[in-house]
Amino acid sequence: MDCLRNSLKKIKSFPDGLLSLLESVLSRFEDESGGQLVVATLCLLECSKTGLLERELLMILGNPKNITPSKDVKKIKSDQTIKNPLAASNWARVYRVLKPFLRPFGDSGEGRLDFYHRSLSKAVRAKYFKQDSWKNIWWHTVLAKYFETIENMDRQSEEYPYHLTKCDDKEKLREYLKQWRVFHHFYHPEFSGELLAFWRTVGDKSELFDCYTESLENMNNNPNVDREEISLHYEKVARVVMQSGDVDRCFNLLQSALALEDELGAKPMRMMQLYNVAATMHNERLTLHDFITKAMMPDLKECISFRRKAIRISEQLTERSEKYKYERAFSLMKLAFNLKTWFVLKGDNNLSAQEGFDLGVESLKEAKELYEELGDKGHVAECMMNEGLLLGEVDQEGALEIYRKAEVICIQTYGEVSVLSSRMFTNIAILLEEMNNYDEAYTYFKNGLSSKIQVFGDDHPQTGRLKRVLQEPAYQRLARQEQQQNQQR
Fold first, then answer.
1. Model confidence over 156-192: pLDDT tens digits?
2. Is-contact 104 112, C-beta < 8 A?
3. Strand, coil or helix: what is 419?
4. Which residues contact residue 49 at a Cβ distance below 8 angstroms, ignoring those fewer than 6 apart?
5. Taking the model in full, what pTM does it have?
6. What is the structure's pLDDT at 34?
7. Any idea what the Cα angle at residue 47 is, between residues 123 and 76, rounded to 5°?
8. 93 Cβ contact list (under 8 Å, min separation 6)
9. Alpha-carbon span 195 to 181, nearest angstrom
10. Which one of 206, 223, 452, 487 is most buried, by most CB atoms within 10 A?
């Protein structure tokens, strides 16, 4: 009975709530198994973006100056010569007590550690950061200093800019992002999301433009740099500037790339790629219009013209590699998207509205087949979305059915926060609005805006367009109704 009473007494002494209980466990670990080393390990794992490799932890913990936080972060910046990892015996004590709460990160088995459950993450924040928020900056600074010097680009790009953002060190982040190796690592021809997100932390899109154009000028003036390499850099920077929403200044960069390609003999594949970039730039201008009007015609004509030039070049190429298939499918898919607007605007004497519609359907059929060959589900979903756009002009119910299928594939492939998801939600909302289903259209417009803010940023032209839509009287009324319903719950 005494044993039972003691057990019940012990149970009653436990703190209420899971977080309080975990904090109590953490205190016991500090007292019994490593003190500040345990605290440092927990804080470093919590502040890391993607978990830490065991060897990374050992190297950071091996420097005694990293272990005890100080409000003076200059202590980290002044002398951080990491020579030896933490002794194996010391790490063994820490790892033995924390092992039940840690899991290897991912399926690679490479030893990256992270918390097994997010409840421990919350407990660490409550215990070590809630009262002393400056400690958060300390640990992020320690991690930034470590990852600044490592050679593994994949790991550095995962962690280093993230910690600079948390430390609000804009100057170092700017210097990091302007490096070409970093630019190429984050660059994506369709949308360089991470790169642009970091640049938004540094400042506005003009800083991005000024930084990379200066680097391009230096490269262009260097006689030792290959001209083909310079052309590729101009193209990539033009794409990123366009992706940032700077739809005017990107054209000058593209013109430089085109001029260089003329010097180099205008190789078909390169010209095909550059024509697609030019078409995409004109398409970005089209997205600035809230409604389809005749004012879109100049950019629309240029857009369609460049897409068709790219497609004609692809027909002359004998190479049928995956790269070729991708470029041709991309040209066809994007052409179809613009031909929907062409159909609405009634075409012109060179290409009638119906001819444009038929060409769009035909283009999408081939594009979808090519993407299916390549196993590219994301672009298959985009082809289906474009099918819905075209069909919506003649059969709204049929278009909505295609949209629903495309939406499922899109979210399975990219999730709800992506370039295509934001476009998918917006296009479905527009169709629902045309069908007078304002309630569901409102939900989709809201989802589209949420996705665009996270993908493009709050001040991007595409984000601004959806904000203006949701300011329309019909949607303001629905917003007030939603607010009242939420208050009554």
1. 999 999 999 999 999 999 999 999 999 999 999 999 9
2. yes
3. helix
4. 158, 159, 162, 163
5. 0.84
6. 60
7. 125
8. 33, 34, 37
9. 12
10. 452
